[in-house]
Design a protein that fits this description.
The protein is an alpha/beta fold. The protein has one domain: Rossmann fold, CATH 3.40.50. The chain is 49% helix and 12% strand. It has 9 helices and 5 strands. It has a 5-stranded parallel β-sheet, sandwiched between helices.
Length: 165
């Protein structure tokens, strides 16, 4: 089974796409934000924001996107692929990488076989302080998410040959 990286701006449909790939082809995935909250962010931020669980920390991430970006970069300071390696131990898909430097290092180390960009033209782009990957440059394929959920699912069905090559 190919190892996938799904990238895109916030709320463009990355987790939804990963869910379709799970349901269609049996992939296992974990989002970077969920993993980071469980692994280290909850412990780092619980006193500052009064969190009582990693789930509460995760749910509040939208209010602290730049801080999360910086803390994940700090976690990866000695090995830019550190978080990806932890996630990929139990998953086939990493969802939501935010740093171009980390993306380049993961690709250099061969951690991913295919990079899928999810793009919703109806949604805003993020500030470079929380997402600095050019999905048009780094993605092997861009999946538009500009219609219904069924449309997204049908577009993901079309990439099956890429998943099996």
């Amino acid at each position: 089974m190919k190892k996938l990286l799904i990238i895109g701006h916030a709320q463009h449909g990355k987790d939804t796409a990963a869910g379709f790939l799970r349901d269609l082809y049996g992939y296992k995935f974990k989002g970077s934000s969920v993993a980071a909250s469980e692994i280290f962010l909850y412990d780092k931020l619980k006193e500052k924001y009064g969190y009582t669980s990693p789930e509460q920390c995760f749910e509040d991430r939208v209010n602290h996107r730049s801080e999360w970006y910086d803390l994940i970069c700090e976690y990866n300071k000695d090995d830019k692929a550190a978080l990806a390696k932890v996630i990929m131990k139990d998953s086939n898909i990493y969802v939501g990488m935010r740093s171009n430097v980390e993306c380049e290092e993961c690709l250099r180390q061969g951690i991913f076989d295919l990079v899928i960009g999810i793009w919703n033209p109806r949604k805003n782009l993020e500030h470079k302080g929380s997402f600095d990957i050019d999905i048009w440059e780094k993605s092997d394929i861009i999946i538009p998410n500009s219609g219904s959920l069924a449309d997204l699912g049908n577009r993901l069905i079309l990439i099956e040959p890429l998943l099996k090559s």
